[in-house]
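LAB NOTEBOOK - FOLDING QUEUE
OPERATOR: T.R.
BATCH SIZE: 2
PURPOSE: Compare the predicted structure-token outputs for two unrelated chains run back to back under identical settings.
PRIORITY: normal
REVIEWER: second-year student, initials M.K.

ITEM 1
FIELD SEQUENCE / FIELD STRUCTURE:
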Amino acid sequence: MAGSENTTTLPGCINGLPKRGTGPGIHPDAELLFAWDAFTDAVTAYQCALDGEEGLYEEITFNLGLRIEAFRPKTMDGMARQLRYLLTKYIDCEDAWEVIVFGGNMTSGLKEILDNVHHVGMLWRMLESIDGPAERIARAATGRNGGSTLIPALGMTFADASAKVLALLGDHQAAAEARTDDPPDHLVVEACEIRRAVFTAPPRTPADALAVLNLLADDGAGLTDGRWVEGQETAVTLLRDFMARQVAPDQRV
């Protein structure tokens, strides 16, 4: 960060922190998705800031916007975020921020722009085709039917990720028993990265919860024999909250 004119937006201590989210199994657009989430949080903070304190959030928002612009997305998730950012910046009106960034209901003012500015309307239709209400409804339907839902950081469902962890650890165990001169320890590293993502993502369906429990209870991957597993406390808390919602559907925890 030395020599950067934007060092005031981040604390200097981050230079000593280990990098995370770069291991195998991480979502291909993980940094872009994180940048988008941080961008929307910064915009919200700007809107809520006290008079005279908006400047800090303006700078953070501007720098995060530069990062979003610089990415070359690898997935539809990443492309949707970039399109939302591009379209909002191009229109540059309050309604665009509310609808396109924060997902509010369509306003008459924005609809008029989309209907009358040809290229803007075309970009909006492109965005709707990959990240519109139909796609969100389809994902919600999966949850209502009890199927396992997606963990965005991995690009896999809870069930698939849990199975992947067990398969990787099984492959490592088989190689160790074969007493190879070069044990494939990278399999354990990848399994731990995926398991951490499973344990720290909130389950949304019974299938999600079962996938988490399968890992917690597994002899090789879980808590047997008093073993400590990274993320286990978070996993137990999230499972408790999930079960509380099932017992009292109207309760929000």
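ITEM 2
FIELD SEQUENCE / FIELD STRUCTURE:
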Amino acid sequence: MSTNLKLNVHSVKCIDETGGKWREKIGNDEIYMAAFTMTDNLELVRKNAFSVYGDFDDGDQFNFNPPKTLLNMNIASAENGSTYGAGIILAEKDNNRSWDSLWDFLYHYSSSNPKAKDLPVALRVGTQLLHKGTLALKKFDEFIGSEFSRAYEDDFFPPMQVYTTLSGKDHTWNGQFTSPVFSAECTAHDGKYRVYYSWELL
């Protein structure tokens, strides 16, 4: 009987380097990754930013061997049809100070916005709505285009929202405790990246 669900990343592929064709000729992308989810009590759980690869060019793919765990979620209360979700964030990094403010933004946005309750919900963890995370995702485009983001020169991509639905604590994927490998894509700053990930039950 499983009580934990892991989100693992297998590889990151550069479909198109950031910055347009002229910037691509003189440099490469230094890509960092982070991830977040919410507990049933709506507490932020995060994987702090780490370096994926410092020299991405068009077509490059970095493989994690073994796959790297991004998040570990408690599913002790999982029931049939429980859906678990997370946000995966990539950034072309120039200055790591902006990540602290990103986490602060993700955590505090909903409580500081008087219209928060009117925004639609996009993520779920178990039977609980990922309220704060969803609201942050809803407004993320404003964050990455803000004066703050430009000042720190980090090029954030919109979070990739990933999900899995379990049939309960005895769930398997065709008899396996590890799901097939899925992919998610993000596009911004004239660049495009694809992340390959899977779920694992423990």
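REVIEWER COMMENT (ITEM 2): The first strand starts at residue 4 and ends at 16.
FOLLOW-UP: none requested
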